[in-house]
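Morning!

As promised:
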Amino acid sequence: HSVLTQPPSASGTPGGRVTISCSGSRSNIGSNKENWYQQLPGTAPKLLIYLNNQRPSGVPDRFSGSKSGTSASLAISGLQSEDEADYYCAAWDDSLNGWVFGGGTKLTVL
Amino acid sequence: QVQLQQWGAGLLKPSETLSLTCTVYGGSFSDYYWSWIRQPPGQGLEWIGEINHSGSTNYNPSLMSRVTISLDTSKNRISLKLSSLTAADTAVYYCARENRGFFFDSWGQGTLVTVSS
C-alpha cells in the first residue's frame, strides 16, 4: 500500500499522448515538490521530472509534469516504443519526515 | 559525472543481517544526502532511510527498529545494515544521491537480496 496513488497501468499509441496521475495529500504533494522517475525493465529508476516541471539534461521535452493541490500528473507526448516502462511519482512527506512513492504505473505503447 | 557502485551479499537466511555498501565516484560527497531505497520483486519503491555527510540519519518509521545507515567520508562510502531479516525483505536495494527533500538524481545499479532458508 503506497502513500501516493497511481493507476497501475496506462497505454497509448505511437505518436499519441498519455497522462499518468499521482494523488497524495497535504503533507506530501500539497506541501513539497513532487518528482517522477522512469524505470526500464531490469534497470535502476532514472530521474525524469523534478521541481514540478524541470527535466534533467537528456530528458526530451516530450515529458512534462504539472501539479494541482495534492495531485500531480506526468504527461508524455509523441509516444515512442522506448517509452514503455514503469513510472513512479515521489515526494517528501512532512508528517512521516521521509520520502513516499507511488505504486508505479506500467506504460504500454500499443 | 557521479557514479554510485554498490555491493553486498545477495543470499541471506531469515534472522540474519543484510549488509550493503555504496561507493560514490565523482561529484561532491558532502553537498548531498544519501538514501537507500528498496524494491520487492514486481512491486514499487520503498524509501529506507538517508544520511548526510555529518552522519545525521533519518529512517522510514516502518523499518527504523532494524535499520542502520552509516558512512565513511574518507572513502566516500555509505553503508546499510538491516537486521532480523524475513522473506518480506527480499528486494532489490538501491543507493541514491538525494538533493534533500527534492529529488534523487543518481542511483546505484541495485543489488538483489534474497532472504530464504
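The interface with chain A takes residues 35, 37, 43-47, 49-50, 58-61, 94, 99, 101-105, 107-110 of chain B (CB under 8 Å).

Hope this helps with the figure draft.
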